[in-house]
Amino acid sequence: MSGVKSHRELIVWQKAMDLAVLTYEFTKALPKTEQYGLTSQLLRAASSVPANIAEGNARYSRKDYARFVGIARGSVVELETHIELAVRVKLLEQSAVASALVLTDEVGRMLNVLHAKLVQSDNGFAEEDQDYLPSP
Question: Is 43 helix (H, G, I), strand (E, B) or coil?
């Protein structure tokens, strides 16, 4: 696919890693009583996104890759939901998670496009699919 040799070259994977790092940072502010509850759920969902992108990229078929991208998309929505819940129950301030919410939207949109490209019958990405090409 368009010369991408490693998941590390995928901009969507890089942004998903940034999102996971942001999540680890803001969960430090959660109370210890949430360690096995919301904190755990947030961290698991956040780490699942880049992990599933990477695993899908390593698969031998586009169908498998698309399946893992779909799982990653589900994890993005799960993460967004847990973040919103933490704000609604006043465990986190909206300002503390604003950049993470912007990134969940961006990564989600990128995963939607990647999934659509993977399920298309053509063999590769078009020139305009810069989100999936190596970073400069």
Answer: helix
* Gap between the Cα atoms of 98 and 96, Å rounded: 6
Name the H helices within 89-125: 94-119
Which tens digits make up the pLDDT trace of 25-55? 999 999 999 999 999 999 999 999 999 999 9
Q: Is 129 exposed, middle or buried (0-12, 13-18, 19+ CB in 10 A)?
A: middle
Domain range annotation of the chain: 7-120
Higher-confidence residue: 105 or 129? 105
φ/ψ of 85, rounded to 5, equals -65, -45
Structure tokens at 92: 């986190």
DSSP string across 21-71: HHHHHHHTTS-GGGTTTHHHHHHHHHHHHHHHHHHHHTSSSHHHHHHHHHH
21's CB contacts (< 8 A; 6+ apart) are none
pLDDT band at 135; cut points 50, 70, 90: very low
How many whole angstroms separate alpha carbon 68 and alpha carbon 94? 30
One-letter identity of residue 39: T
CATH no. for 7-120? 1.20.1440.60
